[in-house]
Amino acid sequence: MSSEERNRDPDAAPAGGEAPGGEVACLRFEPPEDREALGRAWQDHLAPIFDVSFRPETDLTVPIAMRSYHLGDLLVGDVVAPAHTLVRTREMIGQQGLDHILLQFYRRGQSRVETDQGTGPVNEVQCIVFDLAQPVRIVAGAVDATNVVIPRALLEKQGCHPDALHGRPLDHDGDPFGRLVHNFVANVVACGDLLDRREALAASTAITQLCASWLRGQEEGRPAQHQDVRIRVRRLVEAELGNPKLTPALIATRLGLSRSTLYRLFAPNGIVAYIRDRRLMAAMRMLVRDDAPKPLRVSQVAFAVGFSDERTFRRAFKRRFGFIPSDASQRLDTGPEPAPGAVLRNWIESL
């Protein structure tokens, strides 16, 4: 596998040899050889989270870099980017259904963040909290920052509800605990190519606990109750993943939706395909984790993710990933190489 192919493969180990238990997957932005195509490539890379546009003062001749590490439960990374404008619209939120929190710790640069609650500046040594279920517009200068993407559910399990912090800058340098959080995340990113999967999962747990503790001390108001309907469906699916009776009818009844609305939300593949894919992704995570006291039997995994029989699970798993469940811990290639720009989206959805 070439280095370019490795950077696009969400489950391939980075170049540099095998570490115990398999290395952490890393995705790097690869600038195209044609410098005229650089702007479009950068827009495509960030498209899973933001619509990107450039301003008259944008200098695309300066270095542009972004790396992301998939730690199993969350993503961490860093970015060096030119001046640009990033927008997350209600339409994007409705189409994607992402229920995640993005924390961006600025080391250099400034921006102006616009949300439904107002507009404010973000300066160096501040962290900005983005709730990906809420719209936002960011007018950013050239920045150097550390990033964390955490599923909201992981923070909520720690008693943290960061909804009301959306768009709000937090001082991560003047606040001693904030400085601790940023330094830890930045060090994990710096060591990303050296970690094995067991270490990555331990780091993921620590980052979640640190971020939740820090954000709990910054919370204002009550958690938002008005979630996009696709996000509400996704959260119900995740909560009921092990229920073999999870059907479109059950979801429609629980959330007060019509069947036609439910199917339209998950077009073109449909809600049934979405449920099955979430079950199979959950099964893959269970099979490749090496922190369990003893390996799980395939039948245990099948029933845990809502399949009523092992034979159906095995067929569905092989169709999705290209190999049988018992080979999952040795086979990290998840199938056909995704199209350019799709890897980051696949990673976020896999959390």
From TrEMBL:
Q: What ranges does the record give for the region Disordered, renumbered to this chain? A: 1-24
Q: Where is the composition biased (Low complexity)?
A: 12-23
UniProt-listed PROSITE patterns: HTH_ARAC_FAMILY_2 (PS01124)
Q: Which UniProt keywords apply?
A: DNA-binding, Transcription, Transcription regulation
Q: Pfam families, from UniProt?
A: AraC_binding_2, HTH_18
Task: Write down the SUPFAM superfamilies for this protein, in alphabetical order.
Answer: Homeodomain-like
- Protein name as catalogued: AraC-like DNA-binding protein
Tell me which species this is from. Methylobacterium radiotolerans
What high-level taxonomic lineage is stated for the organism?
Bacteria, Pseudomonadati, Pseudomonadota, Alphaproteobacteria, Hyphomicrobiales
